[in-house]
């Protein structure tokens, strides 16, 4: 029997604080920052530069306290179950210490029956300041190199709390996941690990018991049941269920995602999850994921915590993000190592949608001490989460860390380390040992980037995974993605600002300027402008800066994604940095911190399409990532800017399932555009950079009409219109549009569908700065 303890909490500083010692109401699950915000004691950390005035919160001790009534329920045991305490805490019940915690990533269970009393009980959770603990450990173990002057490597806590090149420094404390009382008698299911085979499941069960009486353990799934008995002294068993008739679970785009309810019982205790039957393997040299014996090309996004305060990420919000991911055609998410082990709701959605999940262990971009207490904490959190997530078919890979092996090889760590530990023992020993013991059905990879062996250069693109940051970080034009012929790209990205409505809500600047947007990347604003050179004009106004930098981000990532897809099957994965943001910021995300889709999202929807027409060098490449042949008449035409065909070619083509075909296009010295059409797919390629194209000034007819749920905006081109875009959020922050970045030839039309419940000015919908194209002036 479980009873949540989420009501009646208060919060107060344990010592001096700017707002004084008074207790305020606290939301559980929640965090100190969100409680202070709700009480009106701090300004919104996401607006203007308010973040910079809140550093004291992470340097303050905090006390959460509540009272609850309890009466003997007849059970032999009652435990306090804490599913997430952030981070270093002492838990007291009626003034007596139940236990301590030092790890945000673990679940804690404290025996509480002897301290409970009939009637009112008082529960306190005393949090020590995260900075005090981390700096104490840093002094004890010696500094470790990392990208920021922050001690996040010395506390088992979400690293990006301490700031990142896309995130604010908002160091939290709080009860961030559920807390409650768990009462039981006789026996309870302490751990259930269903290790799935393609035709069945081996259910590993560990039971905790209060006596020596035999315990019957049962498991049933898909109409198959098994039973065993644990005799005196026994606490573990494995129940094998063979289910040859079960349908396979497939990644998105490769088949259906049937799920089957698995129920396990021990005495009166019951555990229930949905599982999917599938196998997953990793071809380690090529880094190819193989599901049910079939290689799968990974089209994915990196995922960061969707809010700096994770308790605010509701199931509805996750569903919206997943809808945005799958809406592009993505089939995978990589849970990045500077965040958390994601929630049951996250994995449940992925299971149902067929999104493969790559879960990093939470280590990122820094050298980590391996000594105690960290070695024990890391093993405990790994055991906890590997077991917790083992039921989910969407989980296809465990990865040891993000960029730490690269850091040791390439970031000048060795001299400052002076022989001290840096995490290698975690990535090559502790973590693979835990995965091999608890979840051998899934592959483990020591880190990313990683080339398959400790003595190989992690930046070798011919094997394993690579991260490509030379383009953005090295101020190179995005065409330099063509310099890479990788096996699997696990990270690459290019910045762009958030949507107008998101930026407007986050800044009190009048008027807005490029510097009104949060920008955490060193030199980021200069890189945005430098990245435009040769591709787009230099902006003279904020509105031009906003459109062109967003457009340049979209083009950069489309270029990279399409190149890597054109290399299939040599390259078998492209994972974009990143899907989402945790606050309003100029970043690499496709969906901004308010959940609005940037132009990048629309470009990726084209680039992730099951069937893609793209270019690789001078050739046109047809990419067919489906199980059916793609055949028909391929029509190629070299055009001038009036749309007149100067040269053409038609060819019957057949692209086999999960394959590519390359075709040489027609050429003409006067051509400025190339079109390619196969069936319903048509694309227009510009044959030079925009400043060199000599576009005519845009001419178009546009009209607006009301339709259910919003407006239809139809644009008919009188001239070529390059990357036509509509930004209705400038008129209604809640408005959205179904498409962006459409290139039209003279005489062609497109209708944009705007979703809004507001009355909008039809003229404004078809005017600058709402309706834009590259050659508008």
Q: Averaging pLDDT over every residue, what do you get?
A: 97
Counted beta strands: 44
Please give the largest β-sheet.
Answer: 6 strands, antiparallel
Instruction: Count every helix, treating DSSP H or I runs of 4 or more residues as helices.
Output: 14
Measure the end-to-end span: 69 Å
Adjacency order of strands in the biggest sheet: 3-2-4-10-7-8
* SS-based class: alpha+beta
Find the CATH topology of the largest domain: TIM Barrel
Instruction: Give the helix proportion (percent range).
Output: 10-25%
Structure characterization notes:
InterPro entries: Beta-gal/glucu_dom_sf, Beta-mannosidase-like_N2, Beta-mannosidase_GH2, Galactose-bd-like_sf, GH, Glyco_hydro_2_cat, Ig-like_fold, Ig-like_GH2. This is beta-mannosidase. Its EC number is 3.2.1.25. One of its GO terms (molecular function) is beta-mannosidase activity. This protein is an alpha+beta fold and 777 residues long. The protein has five domains: 2-182, Jelly Rolls (Sandwich); 186-275, Immunoglobulin-like (Sandwich), CATH 2.60.40; 280-609, TIM Barrel, CATH 3.20.20.80; 615-692, Sandwich (Immunoglobulin-like), CATH 2.60.40; 700-772, Immunoglobulin-like (Sandwich), CATH 2.60.40. 18% of the residues lie in helices and 32% in strands. The strands form twelve sheets. Strands 3-2-4-10-7-8 form a six-stranded antiparallel beta sheet, with helices on one face. Strand 33 (630-639) and strand 34 (645-655) form a beta hairpin. The chain is globular, with a radius of gyration of 28 Å. The termini are far apart. 47% of the residues are buried.
């Amino acid at each position: 029997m479980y009873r949540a303890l989420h009501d009646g909490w208060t919060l107060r500083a344990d010592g001096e604080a700017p707002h004084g010692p008074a207790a305020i109401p606290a939301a559980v699950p929640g965090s100190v920052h969100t409680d202070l915000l709700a009480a009106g004691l701090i300004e919104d950390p996401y607006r203007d530069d308010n973040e910079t005035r809140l550093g004291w919160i992470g340097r303050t001790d905090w006390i959460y306290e509540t009272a609850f009534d309890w009466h003997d329920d007849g059970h032999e045991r009652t435990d306090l179950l804490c599913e997430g305490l952030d981070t270093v805490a002492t838990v007291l019940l009626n003034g007596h210490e139940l236990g301590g915690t030092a790890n945000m990533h673990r679940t804690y269970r404290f025996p509480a029956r002897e301290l409970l009393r009939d009637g009112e009980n008082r529960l306190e959770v005393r949090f020590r300041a995260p900075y005090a603990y981390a700096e104490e450990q840093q002094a004890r173990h010696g500094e470790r190199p990392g990208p920021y002057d922050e001690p996040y490597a010395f506390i088992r806590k979400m690293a990006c709390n301490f700031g990142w090149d896309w995130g604010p420094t908002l160091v939290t404390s709080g009860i961030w996941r559920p807390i409650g009382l768990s009462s039981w008698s006789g026996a309870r299911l302490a751990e259930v690990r269903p290790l799935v085979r393609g035709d069945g499941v081996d259910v590993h069960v560990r039971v905790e018991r209060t006596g020596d009486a035999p315990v019957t353990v049962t498991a049933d799934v898909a109409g198959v049941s098994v039973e065993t008995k644990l005799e005196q002294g026994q606490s573990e068993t494995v129940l094998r269920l063979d289910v040859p008739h079960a349908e396979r679970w497939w990644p998105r785009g490769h088949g259906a995602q049937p799920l089957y309810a698995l129920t396990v019982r021990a005495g009166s205790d019951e555990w229930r999850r949905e599982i999917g039957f599938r196998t997953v393997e990793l071809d380690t040299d090529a880094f190819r994921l193989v599901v049910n014996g079939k290689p799968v090309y990974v089209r994915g996004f990196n995922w960061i915590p969707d809010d700096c305060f994770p308790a605010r990420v509701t199931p509805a919000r996750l569903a919206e993000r997943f809808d945005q991911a799958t809406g592009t055609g993505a089939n995978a998410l990589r849970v990045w190592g500077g965040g958390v082990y994601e929630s049951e709701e996250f994995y449940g959605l992925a299971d149902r949608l067929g999104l493969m999940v790559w879960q990093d262990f939470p280590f990122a971009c820094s050298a980590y001490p391996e000594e105690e207490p960290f070695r024990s904490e890391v093993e405990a959190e790994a055991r906890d989460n590997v077991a917790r997530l083992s039921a989910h078919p969407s989980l296809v890979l465990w990865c040891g860390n993000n960029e730490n092996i690269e850091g040791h090889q390439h970031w000048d760590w060795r001299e400052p380390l002076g022989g001290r530990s840096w995490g290698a023992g975690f990535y090559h020993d502790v973590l693979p040992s835990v995965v091999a013991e608890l979840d051998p059905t899934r592959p483990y990879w020591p880190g990313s980037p990683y080339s398959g062996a400790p003595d190989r250069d992690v930046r070798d693109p011919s094997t394993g995974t690579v991260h490509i940051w030379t383009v953005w970080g090295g101020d190179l034009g995005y065409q330099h993605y063509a310099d890479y012929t990788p096996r699997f790209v696990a990270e690459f990205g290019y910045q762009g600002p958030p949507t107008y409505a998101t930026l407007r809500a986050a800044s009190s600047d009048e008027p807005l300027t490029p510097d009104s947007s949060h920008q955490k990347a060193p030199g980021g604003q200069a890189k945005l402008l430098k990245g435009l050179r040769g591709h787009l004009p230099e902006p003279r106004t904020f509105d031009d800066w906003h459109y062109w930098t967003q457009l340049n981000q979209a083009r950069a990532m489309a270029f990279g994604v399409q190149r890597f897809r054109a290399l299939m099957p040599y390259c078998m994965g492209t994972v974009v940095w990143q899907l989402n943001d945790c606050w309003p910021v100029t970043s690499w995300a496709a969906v901004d911190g308010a959940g609005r889709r940037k132009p990048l999202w629309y470009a990726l929807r084209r680039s992730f399409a099951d069937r893609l027409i793209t270019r690789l060098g001078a050739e046109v490449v047809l990419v067919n990532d489906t199980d059916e042949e793609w055949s028909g008449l391929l029509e190629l035409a070299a055009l001038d800017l009036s749309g007149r065909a100067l040269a053409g070619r038609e060819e019957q083509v057949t692209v086999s399932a999960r394959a590519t075909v390359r075709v040489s296009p027609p050429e003409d010295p006067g051509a400025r555009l190339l079109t390619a059409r196969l069936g319903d797919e048509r694309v227009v390629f510009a044959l030079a950079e925009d400043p060199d194209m000599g576009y005519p000034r845009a001419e178009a007819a546009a009209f607006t009409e009301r339709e259910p749920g919003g407006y239809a905006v139809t644009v008919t081109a009188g001239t070529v219109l390059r990357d036509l875009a509509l930004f209705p959020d400038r008129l209604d922050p809640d408005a959205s549009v179904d498409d962006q970045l459409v290139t039209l030839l003279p005489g062609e039309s497109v209708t944009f569908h705007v979703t809004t419940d507001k009355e909008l000015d039809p003229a404004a919908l078809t005017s600058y700065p709402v309706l834009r194209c590259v050659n508008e002036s």
